[in-house]
């Protein structure tokens, strides 16, 4: 068997090499993937953290964290090891102005994600937080864009939850075009 080793060229604007492919997969359930670390948003509110681990699905926990809010200070991590497939949920506070124009916030969020995750990252943004902003990109597009550019992680999962599958797929295809413009290869799996 012949093998050739090549040194990848590094794109100076990202941690990824031009030969690395970033994989983004749309999943219907956490059981559809190997990811145990999930990121999403919450508001300040009335729910106790332990109440969030009692919901039957991750998307339901994030929906309630957005609708009712969490009493404990954010960011917050909740681990559930009492289920067949243990998982961790990370809750970040949604920016007060409800926009993602602030690149400093996005970069800090991306760096925080890298610290708290390992091989892959799952993300669920509830529909009420996945709006268009002044940059004409949705929340999911903006967050994944910065996470991919700032982190070494190459496997991402997007939980479908309450979203329509065509909406998420179109958003991820738009993200793929943005990343391709920066020579970052991306594969969208659905």
What does this structure look like?
By secondary structure, the chain is an alpha/beta fold. Helices cover about 30% and strands about 25% of the residues. The longest helix has 16 residues, at about 165-180. It has a single domain, classed as Leucine Aminopeptidase, subunit E, domain 1.
What's the gist of this structure?
Helix content is 29%, strand content 23%.
Essential attributes:
190 residues; alpha/beta; Leucine Aminopeptidase, subunit E, domain 1; seven-stranded mixed sheet; 5 helices; 8 strands; disordered N terminus
Please tell me the CATH architecture by its name: 3-Layer(aba) Sandwich
Distance between the termini: 34 Å
Give the percentage of residues in beta strands: 15-25%
Order of helices and strands: EEEHHEEHEHEHE
Structural class call reads alpha/beta
The shape, in one word, is: globular
Radius of gyration: 17 Å
Strand arrangement in the largest pleated sheet: 4-5-2-6-7-1-8
- Overall CATH class: Alpha Beta
Q: In total, how many domains does the architecture comprise?
A: 1
Oligomer kind = single chain
Compute the number of strand runs: 8
Q: Main β-sheet: number of strands, strand sense, barrel status?
A: 7 strands, mixed
The residue fraction in helices comes out at: 25-40%
Please name the CATH topology: Leucine Aminopeptidase, subunit E, domain 1
Unreliable runs, pLDDT <50, ≥5 residues? 1-14
| Number of separate helices | 5
Chain-averaged pLDDT:
77
